[in-house]
Amino acid sequence: KGEGFKIKDEIYQITGPYSRNTHRVLLSLDLSDPITAQRKGKREDNDYPISWVKMHGAGRVFYSGFGHNNEIFWNPAILQHFLDGIQWALGDLEADATPSSKK
Asked: What 3-state class would DSSP assign to 51?
């Protein structure tokens, strides 16, 4: 696990066909934080990925749900996250895409 950080953004709640058995989760919503603990989402397992990668055949898929708040696009850490994800999807950056459940 890396370091946490806080931002204000509307989170898209993925309901399916998402699974940690097929996706490598990069960032997820932490519902143990007092600010988010009272929030109730659509997933019974309380697993809310914000960003993930996965292989699809020989292709690479990068997903990020950030961006419902314009301020997100001025956050240097988020911009770096987008750049790294795009470079990985293009094959210019190596990273582990092993599904999260298999780590």
From this structure: strand
Q: Which residues of the chain have pLDDT under 70?
A: 1-2, 37
Long-range contacts of 87-94 (CB under 8 A, 24+ apart): 88/53, 88/60, 88/62, 89/53, 89/60, 89/61, 89/62, 90/60, 91/60
For residue 62, count other CB atoms closer than 10 A to its CB. Answer: 20
What is the C-alpha to C-alpha distance for residues 88 and 92, in angstroms, rounded to an integer? Answer: 6
- 69-to-31, 101, 103 alpha-carbon distances in Å: 20, 30, 32
Q: How far from the centroid of its chain's Cα atoms is residue 24's Cα?
A: 9
Residue 11 DSSP symbol = P
φ/ψ of 9, rounded to 5, equals -160, 155
| Beta-ladder partners of 61 | 54
| pLDDT tens digits, one per residue of 40-52 | 777 777 778 899 9
